Amino acid sequence: MEAKENLRRSVGGFSAVMLVVSAVVGSGVFKKIVPMADSLHDDVLILACWIVAGLLSMIGALCTAELAAMMPGSGGEYVYFRKIYGHFFAFLYGWASLVVMRSATIAALAFVFAQSFYALLPDALITGWGVPTLVVKIFASLLVVVLSLINLRGLSLGASLSRVFIIGIIAAMFIFIGYAYLVYDAETTTATVVTGSTPPAAGGGSGWLTALFGASLAAFWGYEGWNNVAYIGEEVKHPQRNIPIALIVGTGIVIVLYLLMHLAYLRIMPVESYAAMMETPEKIAAVEAASVMSGPVGGTILSVLILCSTFNCTNSTILLSSRIFYALSKDRLFFGFASKVHPRFHTPANAILLQCAWSCLMIWMGSFDQLTDLLVFAAFIFYGATAWAVIVMRRKAPGMERPYRTLGYPVLPAVFLIFCFALVVITIAGNPLRSLMGVGLIASGIPLYYHFIKK
Q1: Can you spell out the DSSP letters for 136-184?
Q2: What's the pTM?
Q3: Which of 2, 200, 283, 403 would disulfide-bridge 207, Cβ 3.0–4.6 Å?
Q4: What integer best gives the mean pLDDT of the chain?
Q5: Which of 76, 149, 80 is nearest to 318 (CA)?
Q6: Which residues, in sequence order, are bridge partners of residue 74?
Q7: How far apart are CA 323 and CA 328, in angstroms?
Q8: Where are the domains of the chain?
Q9: Can you identify the CATH homologous superfamily of domain 13-454?
């Protein structure tokens, strides 16, 4: 079947909002308070990081919404970058999504799902299974394969699965929050506090700056995925209206959820208890907090919630991200097989399978924190390019129809652009080896680009 076989518009407005929330609420809200507490040792600063990261993500969503309403199509930023910056930069974005950003996101989420699943299994069952890390990676790979096959069978099936799961997940999170504030008596329970690392004040002014940006990276991983719904612009009903609404409303829901969850965490246990968990990376902060609040039963329930959340977020990311490689291939800037639409299911089947294979490879290449740090660094290079694209298009094509206009233009896009630049620079200075790895993976696509251009 040729690439001209069309994808179908089957996603409505409510489903699009739920897909945004599904693509974001994964593992970060349950795990990332630990490295943030270890860096900052202050509950107010931790909450401030989540608020700032949420507001900056919202500004990014506002910028993406303007471009998505102007140029709805499969591939999201790839479509806008091709129009504004040309094929070379658009190709680099698509290539980076495959080798660093989207595949690493899928791998990291699947990794946390597998860790949670393994932790729930009784010891008697897993005795003799071998090295836990090896077993976890096998589970994670199986999850990616199974969910890829589900999404290969149709967008509606994958979207319906995400919608059902995310409604249940939001309800469970509000139950946890309500229990922490209305039932749990923090004064009668004392969490064990273990002395962890030295607070950043010991390092002087530069120590605070490094700590804040390190914590920001952790918070931004929690918000990663807010832009994913734009990837299916070709399959959203009334995309000029529904995509901006989904981006803004979905991101707003996530900000509120995250802030309430972290207020609950810090009510249940002191910040130093979370910092001490850096010594036991197999522990998940939310599970430990639930265990303190309501015993082993609470910990088990939270483990099941994390299992459902990471399952759902992995599913949504697989569903949405594969459209980037489909769009690349349609433009003949990628391997031709990736643009084939399944004749029965009307999905970019080969693009989904390609993404599946690379995500499984990344599961075996790195740990959770290595994957998340790498993808956040790479993602903010292109988030900054999106903010700049809004400014460029306002100057180059002022008369072009804009169903949605970015709130606070040009101040908010400029603020977001400056922050993206600062985050990338400080990440390079603080972790040059991992940053170089990310840049190297992106640059590895340059020879392929010239190969496809020659063909």
Answers
A1: HHHHHHHHHHHHHHHHHT-HHHHHHHHHHHHHHHHHHHHHHHHHHHHT-
A2: 0.82
A3: 200
A4: 85
A5: 149
A6: 232
A7: 9
A8: 13-454
A9: Amino acid/polyamine transporter I (1.20.1740.10)
